[in-house]
Amino acid sequence: MIATHNAHKVSEFQALLAIPGLEVEPLPPGLPDAPETGATFLENAQMKAQFYAEYVSDLVLSDDSGLEVPLLGGEPGIYSARYAGAHGDDVANNQKVIARLHEQGVTQADAAFVCALAVCRNGQLLASVEGRVNGRVFDDVRGQSGFGYDPLFQPEGASRRFGEMSTSEKAQYSHRALAVQLLRQRQKEWLGE
């Protein structure tokens, strides 16, 4: 179970976690929201995985991910999904990043996308990892692909933003793909193989 109801995240994990015999499903409907009171992406991912592992008998993979802009004091950071107030309002969140860049008198800045992953079963934490990709954020939206801050973020070594990339192209650079790769290296710990 992927600890989310976000269809974009579920489909991205289905593509990235192509392990034979492993079915990737979203959480069942009706579960309460997990607490996200950690100070880091890793703490939040671990909390969510342990929380939902109390409700389902399958492996639970949780992620906590977001954008960090050092010029903005690390914002939006762990508050990435609810940066502008409402959880998951991508347009408002992007507009707030752009406004914050303009407050600093810039049109672009160094940034990093971070993805922490944690796997639990029966409340026991089996593995956790963190992937980070550096790049830049810009003050204009480009592309219709992806979600979140993808239209603002261009990873190092790429000529286009995540929002302009296909899913397979984004996977060559993405923080989530890197975190999954790190998790797959520890597959024996959490999948028992």
Structure description:
β2 (108-121) and β3 form a beta hairpin. Strands 1-2-3-4 form a four-stranded antiparallel sheet. By secondary structure, the protein is an alpha+beta fold. The chain has a single domain (7-191), classed as Alpha-Beta Complex (Maf protein), CATH 3.90.950. 30% of the residues lie in helices and 21% in strands. The chain has six helices and four strands.
Please tag this protein with its features.
alpha+beta; four-stranded antiparallel β-sheet; 4 strands; 193 residues; globular; 6 helices
Helices and strands, with pairings:
Layout: H1 7-16, H2 41-53, E1 60-68, H3 90-103, E2 108-121, E3 124-138, E4 153-155, H4 167-171, H5 175-185, H6 187-191
Antiparallel strand pairs: 1-2, 2-3, 3-4
Q: Provide the helix percentage.
A: 25-40%
Q: In the CATH classification, which architecture applies?
A: Alpha-Beta Complex
Report the uncertain regions: none
Total domains: 1
Pfam families: Ham1p_like
Cofactor: Mg(2+)
GO cellular component, one term: cytosol
Subunit structure: Homodimer.
